[in-house]
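> call design_seq(struct)
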């Protein structure tokens, strides 16, 4: 079936945020926003599914207006579900894992990071979200320049990948998945709580003829990998918002 013949309610376009709608941890560009809302939105149902929480989505996509602009919003890998601007569901990792397991994990992470030598370290090494923990070796309180510096250092020394390997070994008895997203951190969440989690809500409430997903971290270990490969949708790999714009133009015959 040609996408051009589908009605708006027949097709769902799901987007990652970082590297897909914006450059990493940057604000969406005005020209992209205009293209997206004036040309794409009239043609298809639109949704976002990101690893970040809702506040970070607000920061990158120009505020709370996204509650009205997007039909579906899935922060934290879809562990929080927002439909029509209203929160309709939420999972909780603390309740799922229990305090004893959480403390064991946190203690190990902090002990490991205390022994890792990096060019710099800042603050906030573990951030709790509803459906996941975000672990950041450099600390989330770093500047844009420090973030870019760590990204280059990590690409050479594989700081995050080596840490994940150790965590998998240490916590093999716990049902945890590790996913690298963005430049400086990685997410930790129970098995199955990756971005495909949002599809549970979508399938329970909607009957789209086509679902498309756009993301940049689609390689194994990336936080778009599982949903990109899911047979229930068509995945599109992008590297920048320009790629997203180009593919959308072709897909929707804009």
């Amino acid at each position: 079936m040609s996408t051009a013949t589908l009605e708006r309610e027949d097709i769902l376009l799901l987007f990652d945020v970082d590297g897909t709608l914006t450059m990493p941890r940057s604000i969406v560009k005005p020209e992209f926003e205009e293209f997206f809302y004036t040309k794409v939105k009239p043609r298809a149902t639109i949704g976002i599914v990101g690893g970040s929480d809702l506040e970070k989505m607000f920061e990158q996509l120009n505020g709370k207006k996204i509650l009205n602009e997007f039909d579906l919003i899935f922060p934290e890998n879809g562990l929080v579900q927002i439909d029509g601007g209203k929160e309709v569901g939420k999972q909780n990792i603390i309740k799922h894992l229990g305090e004893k397991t959480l403390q064991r994990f946190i203690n190990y992470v902090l002990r490991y990071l205390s022994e890792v030598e990096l060019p710099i370290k800042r603050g906030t090494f573990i951030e709790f979200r509803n459906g996941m923990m975000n672990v950041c070796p450099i600390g989330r309180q770093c500047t844009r320049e420090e973030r870019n510096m760590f990204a280059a250092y990590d690409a050479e020394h594989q700081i995050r990948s080596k840490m994940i390997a150790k965590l998998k070994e240490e916590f093999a008895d716990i049902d945890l998945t590790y996913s690298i997203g963005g430049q400086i951190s990685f997410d930790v969440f129970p098995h199955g709580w990756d971005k495909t989690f949002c599809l549970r809500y979508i399938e329970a409430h909607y009957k789209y003829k086509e679902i498309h997903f756009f993301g940049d971290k689609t390689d194994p270990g990336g936080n778009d990998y599982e949903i990109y490969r899911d047979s229930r949708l068509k995945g599109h790999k992008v590297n920048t918002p320009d790629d997203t714009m180009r593919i959308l133009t072709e897909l929707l015959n804009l």
